[in-house]
C-alpha cells in the first residue's frame, strides 16, 4: 500500500472496477439502436469535426450566395491552403510527440529564398533546386531536433530561436528584396494543373473528373474492405446505416468537388501532392510501428523508454521530417507567388499549429490524427476565404479565427472530461 | 500529567481498503514518542489525519489536543495550534533563500509587503536555535540535505510549534548529521517540546524515544515505555511483523531448474551525486522456475539495482557482468535488455509502466511491436487477437481491449503491464512492487500469475516492501540493505524476524541512500 495513491477520493476516481461493458442494457452489440448511439458517442470527436467542416462550408456557401463553391474559388481555396496542409502534417507528428515547432514559417520563407537564389541567380534547374531545398529543410530540422532530442532543451525555445534565425537569414539571403520570377516548370508546382489526356466533356476536364470519381470510389472500396475484414474477425464495426451514410457522404462530397474543379481547369498539381502526402502520413501514423512509437513517446516518454523505444532518435526524426515539409511548404508558396519575398512565411506557424489543435491534437502530446489536422487546416482555410469574400476585414478575421481555435479546443476538453 | 495529544480509536478507509482501524496513542508534554511499523503499516496515514491533510469527517475516531476535541479541516487549522509536520520529502523551495523559505506562509510585514529586515533578523535567530550559521539569504539549493532538514525545523519553530512531527528525518543523513539532529530533538525536549518521531532505525529510536508505539496493518499493536530502561529490539520487531499469513497466498510447488541469469560484481553510482555508490559489488542469480524475492527497506537500493540492470535505466558508472544461460549478454540499453530476455515491471505503474490514455491493446504490444508487424507495418487484427488472448488469460476485467488503460482499476492495470512484458517472452521477469496499490483480491490473482510464469520456466524476481508477500510466494529471499545483499534465506528458513534482524544488524552507522527520488528517475530516463 503506498500512501500517495490513497489520496481522498483516489479510490472512487476514474473507473475503479467500472468495466462499462457488462453495463447498462441497450448497449450490448445485439441492439442496433443502442450500438449506434454508443458508436456515435465514442466517435463523437471524429464525426463532430467532419460535420463542423461541412457546416462551416455550407454556412459560407449560403452567406456568399454561392461564390464559395464556384469552380474558380474552389480551385483558389486549394491553392491557398495547400502549404498549410502540407506543413500541418509535419506539425501533427511534432505535437503528438509532445513538442511544438514555432520555426516552420521562417523555415518555409528561408527555403523559398534559397530556391530563388538557386534558380534565379544561379540558374539551377528545377530538380536540383527542389532537392537542395528539401535537403536544406532536413538539415534545419536536424539542427533544431538535435538540441531538442539530445540536449533536452525545450522545443519551444529552440524553435523560437530558429524562428528568429531563419527569418533573419531569409532577409539576408534576399538582401531585403524580392527575387523572381521562377522558371515556368517551377511555377507549375503550385499553379499547374494535371495534363488532360481525354477530350473535354462539355466544359469538364474529363481526366480530372474521372480521377476524382476514382479516388472517391477507392476510398469507399477501402473502407468496405477493412469493414469486412474486421467483421470476419468479430471486431465491432460501425453500424450499417452509419457506415452507408458516411460513405455516401464522403463519396458524394469528393465527386461533387471534383466535378466543380474539373469544370474550371482540372485538378491542380499541388492537390495531387497534398493528397498523396495525406495518404502516406495517415498510413504511417495509424498503421506502422514508427507511428505507434511516436504516439507512445508523446503519451508517456518514460514508459516508452522503459519499453525499449529510442525516444531521442524518434524526437530527432520528427523534427527532421518537419523541416522537410516546411521546406516543401515554402517551395509551394514561393512557386505560387512566383517570387521569394523576405516576408514569405510570416505567421504560417500560427495557422499550422492552430490547424493541428482545431483538429483535436492534444497540447500534452500523444493524441492527434492526420485526418484531424487536415480538417483543421481546411476549416481555417474555409474561414479565411469565406470571410474575405464577405468583405470582413483582416482585423476581425483574426479575432474570429482565434475564437474558433479556443472554442474548438474547449469543446474537445469538455468532451474528454465527460467521457 | 495530562497528555498534550490523544488520538482515540482512529479508523480510516479508502474506498474498500482499510488503512487504519482502531489506532490509539497519546503524547505527553515534553515527550519524544516514536512510531514504528513496516512500510504501509499506516504511520503516514495517521500523521496525515493528525495534521489535517485528511480532514475531520473523512475518518472515524477522535483527536484530543490540549484537553479539547479537535476537528481539523486542513493543514492550516492544525498548524494554528502548533502541530507541525516535517515530511520525508522536504517541502522547501530550492531557489528561494533560507529566510524566504522559513517565512514562506507567514512573512513578517504589513499589507502584503514583506519586512525584509525583520524577516532576516528573526530568521537568523531561528537558525541559531537549530545550529545553522549560514547567511539567511543563502539559497536552499546550496545547502546539503542535513542543513535543509534543519531549515525545515527552523521553519517549524517560526510557527510556534508545540508538537513537532518528523517523518523519517534521518533517512538521507549520514551518521554525524543524524546524531546532531537527534541531539537537537533532545534539546527541544528539555525545553518542553513534544515530538513524534517516525523512523525505521531502531537504534536511533531507542536512543531518544521515551515511548514507542508500534503500528501493524493499520492497528496500534503496542506501546513500549523505555524511560526506565532501553527497549528490547526483538520485542519491537516481533510487534512489527507478527501476523497471520494463511490463505493470502496461493499454494505452489516450485519446479526449479538450471541457473538462468547470473549477475556478478554489479556496481552503480548515483546519477546526481556521482560520489555516492548506490549498489556495491552485488552478486545475484535466479534459476528457471524460481521466484526470488528481494527484501529491504525503502531506499535499500532494490529498485536501483533492478533498473540499472534493465538497460541502465538508473544510475551512472554501472559496472558488472550479466550472463543468461551461461552466456554473457549485453543489457546496456533497454531494447538490448529486452532482447537478452529481461523484463522489468516497474513499481510506478502509472508514471513508468503504462500509457494511460492509450488503449489496452496498444499498451500490450508496445514493448514488442515487431511481434505484430511485418516490415514496420502493424497487423491490427493480429494485435487485437493477441490483446484479447491476454485479456482472457490474465482475466483483465474490461469489456474490450480498445478501452483506455487509465480507466481500469489498479489490479487490472497491473495485469495489462504483466501482459505487455509476457508478450516480449522474457526469460527473467523482475517485478518491482507488483501489488502496490492493489486490493486484496487482485493481489491473490497477481500472485497466482507470478507462480504461473515461474512454472512456465521463467525466472521471477519479486521486489517488495511487504515482507509477508515475499514469504508467501518466494522460493528464496535475498535481503538488501544499503546497496548490498546482507542475507539470504530459503523458503523454509525465512521469517520476518530474521529478515528484519538482517537489515537492522547490517545497518552501518552512516545511514545514507534515500529512496529513489523521482527527479533521479527522470534524470536516468533523460526527461
Quote the beta fraction of chain A: under 5%
- How would you sum up the global shape of chain A? globular
Name the structural class of chain A. Answer: mainly alpha
Total number of domains of chain B: 2
What is the CATH architecture annotation of the largest domain in chain B?
3-Layer(aba) Sandwich
Widest beta sheet: strand line-up of chain B: 6-9-10-3-11-12
- The name CATH uses for the topology of the largest domain in chain B is Rossmann fold
Radius of gyration from the alpha-carbon trace of chain B, in angstroms? 25 Å
InterPro entries (chain B): AAA+_ATPase, ABC_carbohydrate_import_ATPase, ABC_transporter-like_ATP-bd, ABC_transporter-like_CS, L-arabinose_ABC_transporter, P-loop_NTPase
Domain ABC transporter (chain B): 5-242, 263-507
GO molecular function (chain B): ATP binding
Pfam family, one (chain B): ABC_tran
Structure report:
Chain B: This is Sugar ABC transporter ATP-binding protein. Chain B: Pfam families: ABC_tran. Chain B: GO terms for molecular function: ATP binding. The complex is a heterodimer of chains A (419) and B (527). Chain A has 419 residues and is an all-alpha fold. Chain A has a domain at 90-175 and 286-418. Helices cover 71% and strands 0% of the residues of chain A. Chain A has helices spanning 32-42, 44-63, 71-96, 104-121, 126-151, 155-174, 184-191, 206-232, 240-262, 269-287, 289-299, 301-305, 311-337, 348-358, 370-389, 394-418. In chain A, helix 14 packs parallel to helix 16. With 527 residues, chain B is of the alpha/beta class. Chain B has 2 domains: 5-241, Rossmann fold (3-Layer(aba) Sandwich), CATH 3.40.50.300; 259-341 and 426-525, 3-Layer(aba) Sandwich (Rossmann fold). In chain B, the strands form 6 sheets. Chain B has a 6-stranded mixed β-sheet, with helices on both faces. In chain B, strands 18-21-22-15-23-24 form a 6-stranded mixed β-sheet, sandwiched between helices. The radius of gyration of chain B is 25 Å and the shape is globular. At the A-B interface, helix 11 and helix 12 of A face helix 1, helix 10, helix 11, strand 20 and helix 13 of B.
